[in-house]
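Forum > Structural Biology > Help requests

Title: Can anyone predict the 3D structure of Exopolysaccharide biosynthesis protein?

Hi all, first post here. I have the sequence for Exopolysaccharide biosynthesis protein but no way to get a structure on my laptop. I'd be grateful if someone could post the structure tokens.
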Amino acid sequence: MNRRGAPITRYTHRIASALRRAAEEDQSHMTLTRLVDVLGARAHRVLLLVVSLFNMIPGPPGYGGTIAFTTCAIAVAMLMDRPIRFPGIIGRRKLPLDLMIKASDKIVQVAAILARFSRPRLRWLTAAAANTPYGMLVIAVSLVMALPVPFINAIPNVGLCIIAFSMLNRDGVGVIVGLVATAIGLVIAAAILFGAFHLGTAALGMVRQA
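Reply #1:
Sure, ran it for you. Structure tokens for Exopolysaccharide biosynthesis protein below:
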């Protein structure tokens, strides 16, 4: 397949173009509700890709939790086959538009690289019927990533990004790779949580003995 004709290439160019059109309206920030309006209230898979990539961008306190709950809300809407509607506290959250445009340009570059290796195959793993298990996985992972524990969301989020890219490019092999990366990330997250719990319990025991 010609790389320029790959589904993921078309989707990422669409994302970048939509954000640049929004910037032409002299906006400095964009709310998450506005982002949905720009990309489409039923573009569940596209928006899951966008927010998972935004989760890789460092942000202010609470940013990671907001993106995690946003991801969860999109997945719930996809499961219910309904347009995406955010609660006010999430929908009103603003993101800097210039940063989003820079991120979208990176997405286009990464998509061009991935298109060299990724192609439509094992399409049954990316068909509409896959939305249910896909949505359930995203909800589970996003709830883990919402926990206020440093570094807990890094690897699972990489897995979600790979899955999101692969779903849009109809690449079932990529979906499998993303599932493996997500599983590894969840195991590491569980180990971090276990370690934090163990250290907390030990510290509490020492305080009681003092």
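Residues 172-209 form the longest helix (38 residues). The mean pLDDT is 83.
Shout if anything looks off.
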